[in-house]
Amino acid sequence: MRTAIALGIVALATVLSVVFAAREQDLIKDLPGWDGDNVMYAGLMEVEPKYGSNMFYWLTLADEEPENKPVVLWLTGGPGCSGLLGLMSEMGPFFAGPDNKLLPNPWGWNTLANMIYIESPIGVGFSYSHNTSRYNVGDQQTAEVSYAFLLEFFAAYPELAENDFYITGESYGGHYTVNLSAYILKMQKQAAAGSPAFPNSFKGMAVGNAWTDAPLDNMGCVLDWDSHTIISEDVAKGLLATCDFAHIGPFAAAEGVDPAACNKYYNEAMTQMGDITIYNIYWPVCLSSSEITGQGHALYRALAQGPETDSAAQLGRVMDKLITMQQRKLADAAAAAAAVGPAPPPYDPAPVCVSNYLTAYLNDPAVQAAIHAPKLPYAWSGCSSIVKYSYPDLLASVVPKYLDDLFPANIRVRVYSGDVDGIVPTPGTKLWIDTMNLTVATGGDFRSWTDPFNQVGGWTTTYENGHGGEFMFSTVRNAGHEVPEYQGPRAWTYIKAFLDGTDLPAPTKP
Predict the structure, then answer these.
(1) Residue 458, by phi and psi: left (phi above 0), alpha (psi -120 to 50) or beta?
(2) How far apart are CA 89 and CA 317, in angstroms?
(3) Which of 114, 91, 113, 117 lies closest to 104, judged by CA?
(4) How high does pLDDT run on average in the chain?
(5) Does residue 11 have a pLDDT over 80?
(6) Extents of the domains making up the chain
(7) Under CATH, domain 1-510 is a member of which superfamily?
(8) What is the mean pLDDT of residues 486-500?
(9) How far apart are CA 119 and CA 108, in angstroms?
(10) What span, in angstroms and rounded, lies between the C-alpha atoms of 85 and 83?
């Protein structure tokens, strides 16, 4: 069976050889645990010859007519988390499952576009450098190296270079997507003066649950926790009154703040929440978690690297410790849970413990050989522990780049938010959008939109961007931080409308 399918993959790849012959060595010919007929390429591309820096990528071709379909780059956040999390737990053609099996994802974005997943910045996953100083990185370097990858990618796949190109991402991808988009636009202007640049057909950017403006995003955490009643009113008021997050976020700056009291209330908030999945407050907890691959934990670990006396670093250390303790407690509970029986089934094809499964899968030597991964002196991890991210960049707002770089270029810009995410929640996104003082576009008033089953998929508003174009903000109903993982059909509907340049489907009228 597998041999026949593998031959089918090779045959299909041969049909496309005119397009992809330049990277034939990267063709995935037989992927362990998968019986699908997707055509995929994976491997390394050198992005900084001066330093010997190599970026790992995985390309999944569109199921039909890939030569005519858009090219979509996916950027997972963190900072320092792998794009393969998106591939194998969100919108790829499969989900990682138990026993190194890959489970079909009927709502993969490969049904709509050619999807590129990269491990960025250098030092994440299989991406590495011979000069380890490149693991000290910030937003600008990440954008420049990602752009260097795009130059190499489109040179290797020239028949895709003129296809419509889009950037997507989530979480700290709120920085990655915006900064890379701004850098591409800058390089295109320089190209107009005579130097070549890719991609020539950059059309737009969409980002979900986007870390954008630290004080406002984190203020949104308290507002969200309070509104969902997962912390008490007293604790919410205490956080707002005692925490000075004017520099780091979460909450409103307050006079006479007390860092010790702030940490006390933070500890109380974590205790009151209990052992929930903070990325989706209504989702089952994986009791066998053995590795932190969460983008929110990666952000707190990065914050913890700051100066000893800095309030942001203090918060990062508190949260890193609390999440690590929760993880250990859940791991200790796994044996007891096993005696009771299996966990309740998830409400979506993505398995509850998908992060565990993909970590085991990508550390399998047979899998690494199949995807042309390098042999590194450490195990693959969903979120890097060797990347040291710029502390000032973590706390910087990218709202000015929307206003000064993206909106004037009139590219398609859309932001979406899973409305049960507790780590970069919807209220914070609404706060930073409000600071842009945009006007609601004609016909863009707040309304519900529908998914493929004619259920409410969320709510949406379209604004004028001030330069003759539009900016859309939408929520995705009952979706967590990683929207496609929890609500595949709704995420698929959203991204299809984004790529088509259309509005989200309106409710069917009786």
Answers:
(1) left
(2) 28
(3) 91
(4) 85
(5) no
(6) 1-510
(7) Alpha/Beta hydrolase fold, catalytic domain (3.40.50.1820)
(8) 96
(9) 19
(10) 5
